[in-house]
Amino acid sequence: MWLLWCLGWAAYAFYAAAFLFCFAVGLYYLAELVEEYTVFTCKLIRWLIIGTLALHAALLLLEDAWWSLIAVGVLAHLLYASLLKTYPGFQFSSPSFILSALLLLAHHYLAFAYFAEAYRPFLEVLAFFTFLVWPAPFLLVISLSANELVLPQTEERSHLMMPGSSGVLYADGGSSSHFVSAYLKGRRRGLLYFLNNLRDSLLPNGWKSKKGY
């Protein structure tokens, strides 16, 4: 019996590794799609927010739910919608972004507190988090990679400039023709950048190169 017991735990480890691998591949693919189709992603997030707000209203009318839980969820999604005004650019120090992050944590806390007091089947708990809590924040987090492709504003550019003997020199020592490329290269620190580094560190060198036929 001990052999089957060991094989059972090995099977658990295998399926967990397969799930993590598929999740990482899917996340990488979604991050690339978001960078490629930012306009469509913005529209998708907007419609997701509208649908989630409609689900909150239906939950309030048809189910016995906390008013505070519904109110925080509605307020959080309204703040998510306000972030779309500058999409895919995000100002991490802006009050709307900071309040959105805090309300996301508060929404999770109230949801866990509600389901701890009112017994619900696991399927209903999973449905609540899947359709009323996670969709819009998940896409916004993935969109942080696209945020790094946004061109610098005038104020940001002025901080990176310094006077030179022949015209204007930038912080990287180059001319204005290299300003945008140097700026974007210096800001590549998002989700897709992390996944690329993880892929390069895990895969052997032979796997990275393309096969020649």
The run of helices and strands is HHHHHHHHEEHHH
Mean pLDDT: 76
Helix content: over 70%
What's the total helix number?
Answer: 11
**What is the CA-atom radius of gyration, in angstroms?**
23 Å
How much strand content do the residues show?
under 5%
GO molecular function: COPII receptor activity
Organism: Macrostomum lignano
Membrane topology: Multi-pass membrane protein
Family: Belongs to the SVP26 family.
Protein model, in words:
It is built from 11 helices and 2 strands; from the N terminus they run ααααααααββααα. The protein is 73% helix and 3% strand. The protein is an all-alpha fold. It folds into 2 domains: 27-147, no CATH class; 154-194, no CATH class. A two-stranded antiparallel ribbon has the order 1-2. It is flat. The N and C termini lie far apart (50 Å). The longest helix is centred in the N-terminal third of the chain and has 35 residues, at 2-36. Helix 3 (67-83) packs antiparallel against helix 4 (95-117).
Task: Give a short summary of the structure.
This protein is mainly α and 213 residues long. 73% of the residues lie in helices and 3% in strands. The chain has a two-stranded antiparallel ribbon with strand order 1-2.
